[in-house]
Write a structure and sequence with these properties.
10 helices, alpha/beta, 4-stranded mixed sheet, about 290 residues, two-stranded antiparallel sheet, globular, single chain
Length: about 290
């Protein structure tokens, strides 16, 4: 969604532009057609219509909506405002939503949780990997050089933000994209490839052939970089595929999902070759609980 801050109107136009791009290219671009056919899109150009109408950051009640999600920040209580409450209710009735992108218009930043604290979120590495791909795509399209990172580290601490609620409470991948220099007439062309990438990144957890970064850049359709190794997204959704022989290049133990858990969790690991494995589980005091 765009225009959570009503005076950052470039976000509204970018969301509308993406909708137009998908519709206009569906019949002729196999990559776009695959993304439309395999990924469900919810596109909301203007989240804050009152602020948008009068070109103000705040809504009709005078509150900053991006301080009203889940924790106290702006407003008498969390979700006190009709705009944030409506999106909260939408998310709660659409548990299939897996990525939430909040589009702003300020400086060239692309951020993820946490916004309210300098502590590192559990999925920081996965967030960073996708963020680095977005930064590369924006630069390749002629856009500004982007700073990426947790919002608290690249901007300033924010309490009650959309990304912290969506990630912390709903377990969605959540990003905030700030559009740089929105006055440039063709600025939106700088972001199309990165938004298509995010859709493919979130939709290709089970190796279903949706184009990834390399395919979009090259104009192809096959899942060229599907190496069969479960990533963080696969682990989170429980989708696993067999690892073709020789593709895992190192021994790696991944974070258990979910964590914390009760009573079950999944522990994934990569092996560089076929071998027997003993997996020992320890408690917080360092005592061995069991060996699998």
């Amino acid at each position: 969604h765009g225009a959570q801050h009503g005076n950052e109107q470039a976000g509204a136009m970018l969301v509308a532009y993406v909708a137009e791009h998908l519709l206009a290219n569906y019949a002729t671009d196999p990559a776009v057609r695959s993304l439309v056919d395999n990924v469900e899109w919810y596109l909301l150009p203007i989240m804050n219509p009152d602020g948008y109408a009068v070109y103000e950051r705040y809504n009709w009640h005078g509150f900053d909506l991006n301080r009203n999600w889940g924790t106290p920040g702006s407003g008498p209580h969390p979700f006190s405002e009709p705009e944030t409450a409506a999106l909260r209710d939408f998310f709660l009735t659409h548990p299939n939503v897996r990525l939430h992108l909040d589009v702003h218009g300020y400086d060239p930043w692309f951020g993820w949780p946490w916004a309210h604290t300098s502590e590192t979120c559990p999925d920081y590495c996965a967030f960073h990997a996708a963020g680095d791909a977005v930064r590369t795509l924006i630069a390749a399209a002629g856009g500004a050089p982007y700073a990426i990172g947790a919002i608290a580290e690249i901007t300033y601490p924010v309490t009650g933000s959309s990304v912290d609620y969506s990630y912390g409470d709903l377990h969605q991948w959540a990003y905030a994209l700030e559009l740089a220099s929105p006055a440039i007439p063709d600025i939106y062309d700088h972001y199309v490839s990165s938004l298509l990438f995010l859709a493919s990144w979130i939709g290709d957890c089970n190796g279903n052939g949706i184009p990834d970064l390399e395919e979009i850049a090259g104009g192809g359709v096959p899942d060229a970089n599907d190496n069969g190794i479960p990533d963080a997204c696969d682990i989170a959704t429980g989708h696993f595929v067999d690892v073709p022989s020789g593709l895992a290049i190192r021994l790696a133990l991944h974070e258990s999902r979910p964590n914390p858990f009760n009573p079950r969790t999944t522990i994934a690991f990569d092996l560089p070759q076929d071998m027997a494995v003993d997996l020992s589980i320890y408690d917080v005091r360092g005592a061995c609980v069991c060996t699998l």
